[in-house]
Description:
The structure is a single chain. By secondary structure, this protein is an alpha/beta fold. The chain has 3 domains: 5-222, HUPs (Rossmann fold, 3-Layer(aba) Sandwich); 248-323, no CATH class; 333-401, RNA-binding S4 domain (Structural Genomics Hypothetical 15.5 Kd Protein In mrcA-pckA Intergenic Region, Chain A). 45% of the residues lie in helices and 14% in strands. The protein has helices at 5-15, 24-37, 59-70, 101-115, 130-133, 137-145, 150-153, 157-164, 175-187, 199-211, 248-256, 260-270, 275-286, 291-306, 309-323, 343-349, 356-364; strands at 20-22, 42-47, 74-79, 124-128, 191-195, 218-222, 333-336, 341-342, 368-370, 373-374, 381-382, 385-391, 395-401. The strands form 3 sheets. A 6-stranded mixed sheet has the order 1-6-5-2-3-4, sandwiched between helices. Strand 2, helix 3 and strand 3 form a beta-alpha-beta unit. Helix 11 packs antiparallel against helix 14 (291-306), helix 11 (248-256) packs across helix 15 (309-323) and helix 12 (260-270) packs parallel to helix 14. The longest helix is centred in the last third of the chain and has 16 residues, at 291-306.
Amino acid sequence: xxxxxxxxxxxxxxxxxxxxxxxxxxxxxxxxxxxxxxxxxxxxxxxxxxxxxxxxxxxxxxxxxxxxxxxxxxxxxxxxxxxxxxxxxxxxxxxxxxxxxxxxxxxxxxxxxxxxxxxxxxxxxxxxxxxxxxxxxxxxxxxxxxxxxxxxxxxxxxxxxxxxxxxxxxxxxxxxxxxxxxxxxxxxxxxxxxxxxxxxxxxxxxxxxxxxxxxxxxxxxxxxxxxxxxxxxxxxxxxxxxxxxxxxxxxxxxxxxxxxxxxxxxxxxxxxxxxxxxxxxxxxxxxxxxxxxxxxxxxxxxxxxxxxxxxxxxxxxxxxxxxxxxxxxxxxxxxxxxxxxxxxxxxxxxxxxxxxxxxxxxxxxxxxxxxxxxxxxxxxxxxxxxxxxxxxxxxxxxxxxx
Length: 402
């Protein structure tokens, strides 16, 4: 069937940076119907509040939600307060410990506030899946479980691997994909988004909608963002992440630390620039423009999104000062007593190093400066006075030692 310019543009935006869009022809039909009727499509994203904070890797799928939101569709931010009680087994080689109701409540309180830094909160429907999962009760859960076979459940990669290697699989883990799929039935979603590790759960939604007589949703998966190290997916456990609540100077500097190659993947997945604008910028860099210019633009865009334009400008100036060996305008003021004090104890006391031994390693690596001078003597003792102490590129403190 002919595709209008509007539907074609919407499809192009839908496909930007995605891993898979299944089935694409069904999504085109949904877009065309929406255009013809003026009725927005219902776009669902479910997140379990397993931790209180999110990093910019989590915002990849939120960015896609925002792009679809800007096309006029209804986005639904679903907090999995019920499914968190089960624990998502995706990608796990062992049973995930379920969270307590208290942990879930505490984490959920910050999730939507942080997600609203990307989504338009005035146009976002926020729901909790306990709303329809709790009323199911035992009989409803049995009826739901009857709509999927154990054989098909065992086709799931993580279950299959655990079974073949003799690792345990708790029966309640089978309930997780069923409950996530039932969320799509309850919300009558047209499209569900998720990471590549969520594909089985997303397809479960399609299956259950058909079982309940609904038009099945389409499924869109986004790639996992590679972290600062350029190797592994962004993760707090890998310490290669940028938290969306990190202070502006740190956020800006961390973006600038990524490789020139990784920068373009980040542009595609994180920037709100159009693909055409990114292509022009990439061509300019290929033609001789300094890639740092493009990286600074990305760092300012991300810092502005989670803080403000003024904070991004200040962070750029702060980074410039540090790169020239200067001291930022605002650094922590610390007062310590006990002069004369060893440099290791001073760094630890000012929270510039976690321990005296780590302070020694920093000194050995040439990463410690006092009043601009690199310190090489781990036995150095400082007399009473005020010193500007720098550790690495980004840690500063003005220490008054009494």
